[in-house]
Automatic annotation (TrEMBL):
Keyword Transmembrane: no
GO molecular function, one term: metal ion binding
Location relative to the cell: Cytoplasm
Coiled coil location: none
UniProt xrefs under PANTHER family: COPROPORPHYRINIGEN III OXIDASE (PTHR13932), RADICAL S-ADENOSYL METHIONINE DOMAIN-CONTAINING PROTEIN 1, MITOCHONDRIAL (PTHR13932:SF5)
Chief location of this protein within or outside the cell: cytoplasm
Occurrences of domain Radical SAM core (ranges): 24-268
The protein, known as: Heme chaperone HemW
GO terms under cellular component: cytoplasm
One GO process term, biological-process aspect: porphyrin-containing compound biosynthetic process
Length: 409
């Protein structure tokens, strides 16, 4: 089942933001995230805020969802104006889920049109939707492109049937290649997402998945280690001994294989779990998150961030619809992390990207740790001499350990 929302302070029904959010706002990027909480089937490893048709119950509907989330977008634009935020172009938009492409392409285009109406889109704005390979057609992808989308991220996960079965993924592996071809034909940039470390996945299986993904010649590849989340079906299967647990050494071996094969095919890492052909094919939306930009998250359970303030919407689509119908903020709570929490988060995010973290942003204990990290082969010496912390390949494998040393805990 979906994970719980964080605790926080009550959010005002009018959504207004405190004056502290205005500080430096003109220099920060602004993005929009649209959450589409619908899935045809709940995957056994997933704890995202998603719902299948039989889980929705009354009070919400896929048919009226585009209207509801468009209403929140208009509400959000007014909140920012009323809160005194400067007008900024939207640099990136990301439709995530769930499976956004379970909605008709016309609905996604309608929501994007509302974003364009309420905020100016930058001329080169990156507009992405996630998609399952069995939830798109040649026609729907062309409709998305014609409606303003620039990029599609396809959930491949694996090319091996028994691995997909363990993950409860229902698509035919051959469908991925078709979806990639259709997206390219439409003129969309294409990313494929892989998951490694599934119980029962052999090294040979993983090599097959990586080689298959590369054969599609995508612009961008993501490869994520499987994490077992409490409350998921897969966690229960592991607890009962029905499938083997995940293994950190197996994860490390598969990460090294992926990085080697991606590099040989011309892809470079720019974030620990992401590789691209060049800078023009990096996911700019995710980079906006990692670099501390502002974004408005629309939809049930969506999270937002403006000027250090974070808030999150009510989780269930029915509760969300009720707030939208009432004309009040769908936010369930909010918080402003203190200086220590912000420092920890900045270090955690910036050290994961190839651009690195300025050593001047580290506290004295963190700067003192750099020499040891160089000696242990965990950070790039040349970058450190240029006053940046950039992880080596070994450092990427041990990113959490590097962070602990930089933060002295």
């Amino acid at each position: 089942m979906p994970s719980a929302l964080p605790l926080g302070d009550p959010a005002p029904s009018n959504g207004l933001l405190p004056a502290t959010c205005l500080d430096g706002a003109a220099e920060r990027t602004f993005s929009i995230y649209v959450h589409i909480p619908f899935c045809a089937v709940r995957c056994g490893y997933c704890d995202f805020n998603t719902y299948t048709a039989h889980e929705l119950g009354s009070g919400s509907s896929q048919d009226t969802y585009a209207e509801a989330v468009s209403t929140e977008i208009a509400f959000g634009a007014q909140v920012l104006v009323d809160s005194g935020l400067p007008t900024r172009e939207v640099s990136t938009v990301f439709f995530g889920g769930g499976t956004p492409t379970l909605l008709p392409a016309a609905d996604l285009v309608r929501v994007l049109a509302e974003i364009r109406k309420q905020w100016d889109l930058a001329p080169d704005a990156e507009i992405t939707t996630e998609a399952n390979p069995d939830s798109v057609t040649r026609e729907s992808l062309q409709e998305l492109k014609d409606g303003g989308f620039t990029r599609v991220s396809i959930g491949m996960q694996s090319a091996v049937p028994h691995v997909l079965a363990t993950l409860d993924r229902t698509h035919n592996p051959d469908r991925v290649g078709l979806a990639v071809d259709w997206a390219k034909e439409a003129g969309l940039q294409v990313s494929v997402d892989l998951i490694y470390g599934t119980p029962g996945e052999s090294i040979k299986d993983w090599r097959t998945s990586v080689a298959t993904a590369l054969s599609y010649d995508p612009d961008h590849i993501s490869a994520y280690a499987l994490i077992i989340e409490e409350g998921t079906r897969l966690a229960g299967q592991i607890r009962r001994g029905e499938v083997a647990n995940i293994d950190d050494d197996d994860h490390a071996d598969k990460y090294l294989i992926a990085d080697e094969l991606f590099a040989a095919a011309g892809y470079s890492w720019y974030e620990v779990s992401n590789w691209s052909r060049d800078e023009s094919t990096r996911c700019l939306h995710n980079l906006a998150y990692w670099r501390g930009g502002d974004w408005w998250g629309a939809g049930p359970g969506a999270h937002s961030h403006v000027g250090g303030l974070r808030w999150w919407n009510v989780k269930h689509p029915a509760a969300y619809q009720q707030r939208i119908d009432a004309g009040t903020s769908p936010a369930a709570g909010r918080e402003t992390p203190d200086a220590e929490a912000r420092y920890l988060e900045e270090a955690m995010l910036l050290t994961r990207i190839v651009d690195g973290m300025e050593t001047s942003a580290l506290q004295p204990a963190g700067r003192a740790a750099i020499a040891g990290l160089i000696a242990d082969g965990l950070v790039v010496p040349e970058a450190a001499f240029a006053k940046k912390v950039v992880l080596t390949l070994q450092g990427r494998l041990l990113a959490d350990a590097v962070l602990r040393r930089l933060l002295d805990f």
